[in-house]
Amino acid sequence: MHGVFDIVGPVMIGPSSSHTAGAVRLGLMARKILGEPAVKAEINLHGSFAQTYRGHGTDKALIAGILGFSPEDERIRDALMLAQQQGLDFSFQTVNLEGAHPNTAVIYLVGATGRVARVRGASVGGGNILITNIDGYSVELTGQYPALITIHRDRPGVITQVTQILSRYEVNIAFMRVSRQNRGETAMMIMELDDQPADEVMEECREVYEVENAFTIPAI
Amino acid sequence: MINFNTMGELIAMAEEKELPIHEIVIAREMHVSQRPRAAIIELMQQNWAVMQASIKRGIKNTEHSVSGLTGGDSKKLFAGKEKGYLGTQALAAAAYAVGISEVNAVMGRIVACPTAGSCGIVPAALYAAREERKLSDEVIIKALFTAAGIGMVVDQNASIAGAEGGCQAECGTAAGMAAGALVELAGGTPSMVGNACALSIKNLLGLVCDPVAGLVEVPCVKRNGFAVVEAMLAADMTLAGIRSVIPVDEVIDAMNRIGKSLPKSLRETSEGGLATTPTAKAVERRIYPDS
């Protein structure tokens, strides 16, 4: 059974929990995955998002999230203008993605230092989201837990080494998923954790030989 | 631990412990969230503050939504509340409910209750009661827990999503929540709270979700106004001693079964009902010229 504040709540900017509040959270996750302010955003909208995005302010909501606003921030309605002021170049396209959830967005971001991220996710109802792909890797990320992500070489023992570090710092793993593009090449591991991992944890993870990069995404 | 899955269990627990329903709901929330009572009350206070701000903004609102379909009606209704058939309190409540929904439509800040599409009903009923009966915020915040308890039971045994159960799941649930909370505010017993909830939901059974152009505006905004008045009548009927023949949990079960038999075209897809009228289609072409 849901709790009191799932029924009376959340506080949000209207008009729609799935098309507005959820869209802000999708944008916010993409921004957190990029890990730095974005200077360029190319957004593809599928299904109901593509059909109704103007009327529901889904475009404003996604951009607001990319700017780092929360789903209850009253600046969401002015997000497109604020993005222009802050030097974020953005564009929207409607697309048809075979078999995708009706409220799906694919967000391609370029950061201030040139970093890029391609994030695909859906607003699955009541403001909840599911990120399903990051940079070509299949993932399942809800934003409800802090996540630890590693990009590493697909070799035996990497998972053990990383989870041992977490174990030593007494960080509990709630959900975990590993995916790769091709055997023996680059792989991605995503762990949703009960607590945000400390900086030392991340440093140790990056020191694992096969790990090319490790970063965290805070819960949103 | 304190837990309940049905209105019957919630009412029995309250009566056995000789406590109002909100105390059972608060106790369960403390247990499940592992947070102290003060923290939970504080969160509800914050929600009530946002609700009140949305009412004050709503009754003055003259801004139209991006689609142009809604805006300014709450102000008209509020201005004429002394002259109507319904009486000042009911008309003020309707104006509050429409106002909150207009704020939602112009991308203002609201509290989903239980959803954004039905966000006006519970706060409008409670705000009007507070004004009319000079109640304290403390009492209203407790009533919000009673409303939440009702919504939790409906969510558990039927649905609160228009895409699953049609509008009966959204505005119907909200009206049931509001009616129950109003009865408790007037000193009604836990079983009277359940009775008001039954009467209110029963009258909105079968309500479909067929929004014009897929937007949370037509018929949603004005429907919030209708639904709060309906909830007030259900509360008044209960307080007058009128009993629902069908008990509240059976009404909720009927709502669940009706929701499951509604065609997809009438569950938030805008593929039927009002959404496919010639006028709605023309609105759609105007808002989305490229699709």
From TrEMBL, chain A:
- UniProtKB keywords: 4Fe-4S, Gluconeogenesis, Iron, Iron-sulfur, Lyase, Metal-binding
Which CDD domains does the annotation name? ACT_LSD (cd04903)
Molecular-function GO terms, alphabetical: 4 iron, 4 sulfur cluster binding; L-serine ammonia-lyase activity; metal ion binding
Quote the catalytic activity from the record: L-serine = pyruvate + NH4(+)
Span of domain ACT:
147-219
**Does the record carry Hydrolase as a key word?**
no
InterPro entries hit by this protein: ACT-like_dom_sf, ACT_dom, AHAS_small-like_ACT, ASB_dom_sf, Fe-S_L-Ser, Fe-S_L-Ser_bsu, Ser_deHydtase_bsu
Cofactor list:
[4Fe-4S] cluster
Pathway per its UniProt entry is: Carbohydrate biosynthesis; gluconeogenesis
Q: Which PANTHER family match?
A: L-SERINE DEHYDRATASE, L-SERINE DEHYDRATASE, BETA CHAIN-RELATED
Give the family, as the similarity comment puts it. Answer: Belongs to the iron-sulfur dependent L-serine dehydratase family.
Name of the protein in its database record? L-serine deaminase
Its taxonomic path starts at:
Bacteria, Bacillati, Bacillota, Negativicutes, Selenomonadales
Q: Gene encoding this chain?
A: sdaAB
From TrEMBL, chain B:
Q: Which domain of life is it from?
A: Bacteria
Top-rank EC class of the record's enzyme: lyase
Task: Keyword check for Ubl conjugation, yes or no.
Answer: no
Q: What Gene Ontology molecular-function terms does this entry list?
A: 4 iron, 4 sulfur cluster binding; L-serine ammonia-lyase activity; metal ion binding
Tell me its cofactors: [4Fe-4S] cluster
Q: Which InterPro entries match?
A: Fe-S_L-Ser, Ser_deHydtase-like_asu, Ser_deHydtase_asu
Q: Kindly indicate whether the keyword Nucleotide-binding belongs to this entry.
A: no
Alphabetized UniProt keyword annotations: 4Fe-4S, Gluconeogenesis, Iron, Iron-sulfur, Lyase, Metal-binding
Q: Which residues cross the membrane?
A: none
Q: Which residues form a coiled coil?
A: none
Pathway participation: Carbohydrate biosynthesis; gluconeogenesis
Name the GO terms of the biological process aspect: gluconeogenesis
Query: Which reaction is the catalytic activity of this chain?
Result: L-serine = pyruvate + NH4(+)
The Enzyme Commission number assigned here is: 4.3.1.17
UniProt domain Serine dehydratase-like alpha subunit: residue ranges: 16-275
Family per similarity comment: Belongs to the iron-sulfur dependent L-serine dehydratase family.
Give the protein name, as stated in the record.
L-serine dehydratase
Please report the organism this UniProt entry assigns to the protein. Selenomonas ruminis
Q: List the lineage, top down.
A: Bacteria, Bacillati, Bacillota, Negativicutes, Selenomonadales
